[in-house]
Design goal:
This protein is mostly helical and 110 residues long. Helix content is 65%, strand content 0%. The protein is built from five helices and no strands. Helix 1 crosses helix 3 and helix 2 packs across helix 4. The longest helix has 20 residues. The protein is globular, with a radius of gyration of 13 Å. It starts with 7 loop residues before the first helix and ends in a 7-residue tail after the last helix.
């Protein structure tokens, strides 16, 4: 849901949040076709913001301390897989299809 909110604008908004936290280069590495730069859980906390984190912890039932390391591990992979050509999806429909494909079957872990 975090990625899909607002469609491609949701991802663009996420990129802006990373940029404003000094992590634009990290986010860009996830979108590019090169290697993904790592992100620390504490950095994600600032980039995602309190509202998103509150939604995620409420939706998953996980504590923030448990959730942030998992997000730091998997968010770069998800963003990378959503941008195989080095670009974010250009439409809501494309993003929905990509997310559905990624989260179904072996998309994320296969």
């Amino acid at each position: 849901e975090m990625l899909g909110q607002g469609g491609a604008d949701g991802l663009a908004g996420l990129a802006k949040n990373f940029q404003s936290q000094g992590l634009g280069e990290v986010f860009s590495s996830w979108v590019s076709t090169g290697a993904n730069k790592p992100v620390q859980p504490e950095q994600l906390q600032g980039a995602l913001g309190a509202d998103v984190l509150r939604q995620l912890t409420g939706g998953t039932g996980m504590s923030l301390q448990a959730l942030l390391p998992l997000l730091a591990q998997f968010l770069p992979v998800v963003i990378d897989r959503l941008s195989p050509q080095g670009r974010l999806p250009q439409s809501n429909r494309a993003l929905e299809q990509d997310l559905s494909s990624l989260l179904g079957g072996k998309g994320l872990f296969g």
